[in-house]
Structures are given as structure tokens and as C-alpha cells.
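Lactate utilization protein C, pasting as requested.
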Amino acid sequence: MTDYLKEANNPQNQEDFLNRIAAAADRPRHTLKDDPLVPVNDLPETTLAGKTQDELLAIAKKNSENVHVNFQVVKAADLGITLNNFIAEKEVKSLMLPSFDEQKWNDYSLGKWQENLQLDPIYYWEPSQGRQNIVNANASDAAIGFADFLLAESGTITIATYPQQGRMFHFLPTHYLAIIPKSKILPRSRQAMDYYQKAIQEGSLKTSNINFITGPSNSGDIEMVLIVGVHGPLDMEYVVVEDM
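C-alpha cells follow.
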């Protein structure tokens, strides 16, 4: 695989490849610098523009429930109780949590919450465990994690992959709950990507991928019978913390 990557990254091979495509298409090559993208409209910037956070919350709730998400709004002081209720309702015996530092948990008023859980095992997604994290996630009844943003337009949560919360964290456990501050509700994907692009360029975010998750999977067979949760978690819950 390494040899293939070297060949693919060879500048002369890249030039030969692009020249071959241009010749086959019977048109000259061009670059973005010489032929800049001209948007056909300003919908990415103007859709839901000017909405207050309360208005975005109401839109996000409606659109999330439309994609079969259980949507809750709580205060930070009640978040621990909400998570405990989720664990009890789903009859969780094995739980996966992210391994963010103590400050992250304190920010959500969850300082010692996980230490009081009567569960065994509780898995933490640890960078040092490598692929064992994937095995643990697959063995977990549920995962409780932190989302970066909630997109009001589609009921989508966005989550970059972090060493403390890897990509399979969100897809392998049987049930899934995402915590989102109300202040992190955005109109749509454009605003989220503006943030990620800036963070990556500045070096404050280093990630291998960014997940856009719009509720549990929704699959329809040839008879148009909707089945929720065929791929990934059986169900999903968004908990918006309104005083953050």
C-alpha cells in the first residue's frame, strides 16, 4: 500500500493523470485560480439567517423528531438525571463514554457523574487502546457522547473525530445519546463547515474525519416499509443543554 501511495503522490504521475483526463475530454485543463467558483445563489448563507437561538431550537426539535430522534431540552443541573433515566430506560448494562478531561465533564455539570454509575463494564474510548476501542464500542449497550453542533435545518449533529471520542464511538453501540449545548445550534451545514475549516487551518483542530449524523438509519425496502435503526444504533437521542 505504501508503494501505491508514493506513486499516487508523485507530482509527475498526478500531472500525467490530469493531462490524460483533459485529452480524453477534449478540453484544456484549468485551475480554480483561473476559473474561480461562482455560486449560483446565496442560500447556504441566508437559509434560516437571522433566527434567534430559541427559534433555531424549535426548528431543530421539529426536524430532529421528523428523522426519529428522541429530543430533549434540559438545564445543566438536570443533565445527570436525564442521562441516568436514559440508562435505565434502555436497560443499559455496558456503557461507552468519551475520555475527555475532567474540565469537559465539569462544563456540563457532570463532574463526578460517571463515578456514581452502577454499571459494569464502563468503557472509555482511550487513544492508547487502539483498535480495542472498536471492540469495546461493539460490546456496548449504549454510548453517551458530546456533539460539536446541531444543524436546525436537518436535525443533524456534527462531530469531528477526536482521540478521546473516535468515529466508531457513534455507530457501534446499540443505543446512542448526544449532548449538545443550545449555543451550538446552527442554521445549517455551511456554518458548521466554516467553523471546521477555520479550526483546521489554524491548527486548533486535528481530525481524520467529520461525522454528519441525521438520526438513526432510515431504510425502506421495495415495498416502502420504513425500518429505523437497521444500520448503526437502534435509536438516537439528542439532549440539548439550554443554559450553555
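Note for the archive: The first strand starts at residue 69 and ends at 74.
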